[in-house]
Amino acid sequence: MMIIPRENGMVRVSVKVDDIDRSQVSPETIIALAQKGLAPYKIDFSHCDWFAVWRSNRRLATCFSKYERVFLAGDAVHTHSPKAGIGLNFSLQDSKPPYTIHWMALLMLMPAYNLGWKIAHVIKGVAKPSLLKTYEMERREVAQQLLSFDEDLSSNFTNGEAIKKAFTEALPFTSCTSIEYGPSMIVAKPGANIVSKQNFAQHITVGRRFPSQQVVEQDSGRPLQFQECFPSDGKYRLVVFAGDIARPEQLRRVEALGRSLALPQSSWIQDSGGIFDILMLHSSRREDVRLCKLPSTLSTHSKSNVFADNVPYVGELGTAYQAYGVDRLEGCIVVVRPDGHVMYTGGLEDLEDLNKMLSDILL
């Protein structure tokens, strides 16, 4: 049995119905079954807003698209029981979600989040049509994991402790923070043509969503979660972990990166239809950095795009670099896809690999 508080003081009660004619089930039938599970306590109702009887069926489509021209997402490609509302969540990740959404609405919608930006980039003529093939490559495995989770819930529906354990262990998955895509043209990990250098950002897993940490705006000193700089607007983010740029030798490395981004082989940063933003996070004390001294390629690409790993209002060094597993002195670069998943990590001098990777994606 599952009891879930709902809006307006209502409560949803789910019970397992065995060997009963579905046409004969009524609200009274459901309450009677719930009463058995709650004895010696009593349960009753004065008003039933709605009730339904459903059979738990798990199915997965044989393909998610036809010639990359017609696409299926959400319940059209994977069906399962309505337990926990996980279906709606995953469907949103298939195309594109609103800025904020309840976790129970997130998992079903995630396939749409994965697909929407890819279609947009191909239609706008900034990405090659082959990008669309990655939709099924990435989402089929997630759908299979979803069905396995639903099977665990269904098989343990009468075991309260088992359900609690299943929910707890699956929390990173149901919140979409542990979903990790495999190697492809847009995930540079072993098995892909270009492989990231994960050692530069040990806690930023390529293929997973970029995690958030508290940072401070360089120009205003305003503290914020770094994730606020990654809106769902169809853009890639080149995150430059600039390191300690108060050190002249490190500033020279960052300046060299800025010059490299201005070269023709890195034309994607200017000529790709505005689908790239640059964010810089340095590890120096905010007071020791002057925006006017930073390369224009990096510091004026967008408003308020330079941040410090500082403690707000105190000026002491923060912990974002440590949480990300990035060396505070050396820094690195990280590329985040429009859906928030990490595409590539490497050193400040590894722009050539990134250029090769993007040449396979962009027109």
UniProtKB/TrEMBL annotation:
Domain FAD-binding intervals: 2-95, 112-149
SUPFAM superfamilies: FAD-linked reductases, C-terminal domain (SSF54373), FAD/NAD(P)-binding domain (SSF51905), Thioredoxin-like (SSF52833)
Keywords: FAD, Flavoprotein, Monooxygenase, Oxidoreductase
Domain of life: Eukaryota
Recorded GO MF terms: FAD binding; oxidoreductase activity, acting on paired donors, with incorporation or reduction of molecular oxygen, NAD(P)H as one donor, and incorporation of one atom of oxygen
RNA-binding found in the keyword field: no
The Phenol hydroxylase-like C-terminal dimerisation domain, residue ranges: 179-361
Family statement drawn from the similarity comment of this UniProt entry: Belongs to the PheA/TfdB FAD monooxygenase family.
Protein name per UniProt: Monooxygenase FAD-binding protein
